[in-house]
């Protein structure tokens, strides 16, 4: 049996720690590894760098952006998710999301540039706008990003500037629902709000963004002036799922509705996993698009293909929920592990251990653990580099 892996990027990415690249705590190479290096010992695997533009289910063919075509006997679509701006794609350059290393570096550049521009600004109102940071979306990504910005402003940069005090920064977390972290128990969400407030973050729930421009954000008739806005409010499946054909059912986010065995109805040789699929539990509740679901469904799809090659029947997917965690900042996190709910330092330590374990390779695990330890002792963030060319969203 031979397998072919096609990816538009040459690296595997541990996206759960992207926000730490975006906030200058980790370097990109700490959370990514080259795919060819990871799979170098798998002799029956061919790795191709390419962007899939279309999938023809009836012909059992995938088409790459350069026009090349690849035939398959079995196909696993694990294309992941992208940011959803709910029909307002014009907001994308003004409020970058956090789905790739490129996104993380864009956020890091804009975050650090805001402080540098404020240092040179003599007008108090303009300086206030430069030191106002808005994070849209109160899920785990938004909470972790807002908390990390709070740590940077109140600790990391506190003694770095001559004309501004970084602790004067205003950080606002906006959530359209009645509370943040709706996937967690309400008491844990309340605890997270208190932890964020200790880091100088203002949490506003029931606040749906209606407009974003170069000078700030509108929430209905309300207006927040800010030069820097980050997006963590919605996700959609990779656009490749929309090329599967009209007879494949998609939800409004573009996710494919799959059978319990993870295959596409009518196409038992095609599997869709992770955030690209709508996967229902036996009780009829869709699974969230999080890393544990992606890992387990990917393995299950591969095992089902192995079963079919051995002449056995597919087995329905069974998800093992090992719990949920979110970190807010230093010594601050919340966890819900099989009904056991806790927060504080113990939850933060558990979060750190789980994330180090899930990194690819000993080198990354060692470096991340060492950098976290050094940061814990000193508050120093070694990756505070402003890189890349300025773009239309870099304001100042």
Word description of this protein:
With 396 residues, the protein is of the alpha/beta class. It folds into 2 domains: 156 residues, FAD/NAD(P)-binding domain (3-Layer(bba) Sandwich), CATH 3.50.50; 200 residues, FAD/NAD(P)-binding domain. It is 29% helix and 24% strand. It contains 9 helices and 24 strands. The chain has a 4-stranded parallel sheet with strand order 12-11-10-16. Helix 3 packs antiparallel against helix 4 and helix 8 runs antiparallel to helix 9. 39% of the residues are buried. The model has no long low-confidence stretch (mean pLDDT 94).
Largest pleated sheet? 4 strands, parallel
The overall average pLDDT, rounded, is 94
What gap, in angstroms, lies between the N and C termini? 56 Å
Count of individual beta strands: 24
Task: Outline the low-pLDDT stretches.
Answer: none
CATH architecture designation of the largest domain: 3-Layer(bba) Sandwich
Write down the Rg: 22 Å
Give the strand order, joined by hyphens, for the main sheet. 12-11-10-16
How much helicity do the residues have? 25-40%
CATH C-level label of the largest domain: Alpha Beta
Strand content: 15-25%
Helix run count: 9
The shape is globular
**What is the CATH third-level topology name of the largest domain?**
FAD/NAD(P)-binding domain
Structural class: alpha/beta
Tally of individual domains: 2
């Amino acid at each position: 049996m031979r397998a072919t892996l096609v990816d538009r990027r040459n690296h595997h990415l541990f996206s759960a720690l992207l926000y730490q690249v975006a906030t200058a705590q980790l370097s990109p190479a700490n959370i990514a590894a080259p795919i060819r290096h990871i799979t170098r010992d798998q002799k029956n695997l061919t790795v191709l760098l390419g962007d899939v533009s279309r999938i023809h289910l009836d012909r059992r063919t995938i088409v790459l952006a350069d026009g090349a075509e690849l035939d398959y006997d079995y196909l696993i679509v694990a294309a992941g998710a992208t940011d959803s701006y709910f029909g307002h794609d014009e907001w994308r350059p003004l409020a970058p999301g956090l789905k790739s290393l490129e996104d993380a570096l864009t956020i890091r550049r804009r975050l650090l540039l805001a402080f540098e521009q404020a240092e040179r600004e003599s007008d108090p109102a303009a300086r206030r706008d430069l030191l106002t940071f808005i994070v849209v979306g109160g899920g785990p990504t938004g909470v972790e990003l807002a908390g990390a910005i709070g740590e940077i402003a109140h600790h990391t940069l506190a003694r770095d500037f001559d004309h501004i005090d970084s602790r004067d920064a205003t950080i606002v977390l906006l959530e359209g629902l009645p509370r943040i972290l709706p996937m967690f128990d309400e008491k844990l969400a309340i605890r997270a709000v208190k932890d964020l407030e200790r880091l100088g973050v203002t949490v506003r729930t029931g606040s749906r963004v209606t407009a974003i421009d170069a000078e700030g954000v509108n929430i209905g008739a309300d207006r927040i002036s800010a030069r820097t806005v980050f997006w963590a409010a919605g996700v959609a499946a990779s656009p490749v799922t929309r090329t599967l054909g009209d007879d494949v059912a998609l939800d409004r986010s573009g996710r494919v509705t799959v059978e319990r065995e993870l295959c596409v109805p009518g196409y038992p040789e095609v599997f869709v996993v992770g955030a690209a699929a709508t996967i229902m539990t036996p009780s009829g509740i869709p699974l969230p698009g999080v890393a544990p679901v992606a890992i387990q469904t990917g393995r299950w799809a591969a095992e089902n293909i192995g079963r079919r090659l051995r002449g056995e029947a597919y087995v329905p997917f069974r998800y093992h929920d090992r719990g949920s965690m979110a970190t807010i900042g230093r010594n601050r996190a919340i966890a819900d592990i099989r009904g056991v709910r806790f927060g504080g330092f113990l939850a933060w330590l558990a979060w750190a251990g789980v994330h180090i374990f899930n990194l690819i390779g000993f080198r990354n695990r060692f470096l991340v653990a060492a950098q976290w330890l050094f940061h814990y002792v000193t508050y120093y963030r070694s990756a505070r580099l402003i890189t890349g060319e300025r773009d239309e969203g870099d304001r100042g």
